[in-house]
Hints:
By secondary structure, the chain is α+β, with helices and mostly antiparallel strands. The protein has helices at 2-21, 25-43, 47-51, 56-71, 76-85, 91-104, 108-130, 137-221, 228-255, 273-282, 300-320, 357-368, 403-416, 419-440, 450-455, 462-468, 480-483, and strands spanning 287-292, 326-332, 336-343, 372-377, 383-390, 494-499, 509-518, 521-531. It has a five-stranded mixed β-sheet, covered by helices on one side. The chain has a three-stranded antiparallel β-sheet with strand order 6-7-8. A hairpin with a 5-residue loop joins strand 4 and strand 5.
Amino acid sequence: xxxxxxxxxxxxxxxxxxxxxxxxxxxxxxxxxxxxxxxxxxxxxxxxxxxxxxxxxxxxxxxxxxxxxxxxxxxxxxxxxxxxxxxxxxxxxxxxxxxxxxxxxxxxxxxxxxxxxxxxxxxxxxxxxxxxxxxxxxxxxxxxxxxxxxxxxxxxxxxxxxxxxxxxxxxxxxxxxxxxxxxxxxxxxxxxxxxxxxxxxxxxxxxxxxxxxxxxxxxxxxxxxxxxxxxxxxxxxxxxxxxxxxxxxxxxxxxxxxxxxxxxxxxxxxxxxxxxxxxxxxxxxxxxxxxxxxxxxxxxxxxxxxxxxxxxxxxxxxxxxxxxxxxxxxxxxxxxxxxxxxxxxxxxxxxxxxxxxxxxxxxxxxxxxxxxxxxxxxxxxxxxxxxxxxxxxxxxxxxxxxxxxxxxxxxxxxxxxxxxxxxxxxxxxxxxxxxxxxxxxxxxxxxxxxxxxxxxxxxxxxxxxxxxxxxxxxxxxxxxxxxxxxxxxxxxxxxxxxxxxxxxxxxxxxxxxxxxxxxxxxxxxxxxxxxxxx
Length: 534
């Protein structure tokens, strides 16, 4: 518990320091203007003009404004609730406090709780005698909701909406910045893949040629007709070829990236395997080519992969099993192309080394083409490389599947950002407008005409008198506002008050007629003037 409180205090301290660091002269001047505007609006034509504060009372109220307005940035919910609990504060400062609370409170749960507590405080202050008139309960509740909606709820919701839009804009800017970084990274990956493709081609093509040079040089060294100098030169040539292959392998290790290259242009196809085998024969390799099945059209990616399988197999055979017989098989099966390169054990007894960069790249190339590669030693001591490749074009296996979801998430965020605030503001306005519309449609008391007043006489039955009086409810002003200045009612009588249709400006008030009934008879008909402000 203590740790959690300490963590929250540390987070509050860090947030406060961050706000202070972000305080610019423009924001400071803007906040001062808000303070001055709130004070001036509440001085005139606000409640200060009616209260006529003076002396220390004025200083105290002014101090509340000066302290409460800056404090709203640190404790927005507390400032809003506290402002509603101080009766001397005007509507302008409540609008400012509510707006700031809407912008600063991040959690929807805290926002709803804060708004609900503020409404409770406003309702309590209303019950304590803050209402200006002795009005009917229905109108009183509607006026209370209107005051809360216009002075607190709407500014609060506007602040929340703007805060959500600002957060959305910031999120979109961050996303654009992240996308720019991802674009740079993607460009770098494209360059690395191109390097990988170059490295693969260097290994497949140049490594193959160097292997043939080395094999051919070894074969020439065994010619008995050559002199010692020629043999020495051939040895230097073979050593240079082997050294070049080693350096090429080292360079490939630097250039090759983790991921294999994408589909290469079909510069070498399955039909070119014949020329590949022919070049190997010319270099002294004992190689045979076996073709089978009916030729089938191949996608460029598959055809190129088939060529690479044959090329890599011949290169490995020449390097690891010099002098051994090699067989290249290209067979068109009913559902797939099979390319196989197998060699017998080496004549000098050398063993096959561990798979190098070439076989790793070949595995990736066959996988990208949608096929399966098998590499391994034969029971007889030889070595075999075989690939099964499909006839149809297949999608790349490393294509991302969730890229669409990532691009659609900001769209959903844009779609729903601020909807809650807009819906809340619409609900507040609907309640206010609907309430006034409903109450305005209710029947109200019409004034008593002079003709009806003349026809009513003391002693008439109550039922006859009520027929002459208008029906309905008096709008806004309750009975207390019509009888507070009347003479005492007759003992044991029930009295009703109505406004007459004949009013006089010189009377400086409203003419109200009182009808008192007792035992079913009219016992009094009396008119008095209800003066304004008394």
